[in-house]
Amino acid sequence: MENQDQQVARQVHTCTTRLSVRGHRLARVLLHFRPIVMTSIAFILGVMPLIISGGAGAAARISLSITVFSGMIASTCLAVALVPVFYVEIEEFFNRRAKKQG
Predict the structure, then answer these.
(1) CB 17: neighbour CB atoms within 10 A?
(2) Secondary structure of 27-88 in the HEC alphabet?
(3) Tell me, what CATH number does 9's domain have?
(4) 2 and 68 in contact (C-beta within 8 Å)?
(5) Which run of H or of E encompasses 101?
(6) Structural domain of residue 50, as residue ranges?
(7) Domain tally, the chain
(8) Phi, psi angle pair for 19, to nearest 5°
(9) Are 31 and 10 in contact (CB under 8 A)?
(10) What percent of the chain has pLDDT over 90?
């Protein structure tokens, strides 16, 4: 029995020859989305006890943990959404430049 990741990997592999660079990269996003989000959620949930902590020095821990929490959410959104888009755009830029020169 295949799990979901194996099914997606098989579909991406079979479609690779028919897709453009943009389509291939966006298909790979589907493959990498779940591990990135699961790792980020585990980290964010690991910081949660620091956010709700009390006692001596809690103010310093809370301010630091809120910063880490917010930064991890922002970096996860950027990693999932913008990095593949920037990669495709840069790759297409260099492909167009190579066609103009050659």
Answers:
(1) 7
(2) HHHHHHHHHHHHHHHHHHHHHHHHHCCCCCCHHHHHHHHHHHHHHHHHHHHHHHHHHHHHHH
(3) 1.20.1640.10
(4) no
(5) helix 83-101
(6) 4-101
(7) 1
(8) -100, 155
(9) no
(10) 25
pLDDT in tens, 27-58: 777 777 888 889 999 999 999 998 998 888 88
| pTM greater than 0.90 | no
98 or 84, which is more confident? 98
Nearest 10 degrees: CA dihedral of 16, 19, 20, 22?
Answer: -80
Q: What is the dihedral of CA 52, 55, 56, 57, to 10 degrees?
A: 10
Give me the amino acid identity at 94. Answer: F
With contact defined as beta carbons under 8 Å apart, do 2 and 10 qualify? yes
CA 1 to chain centre: 27
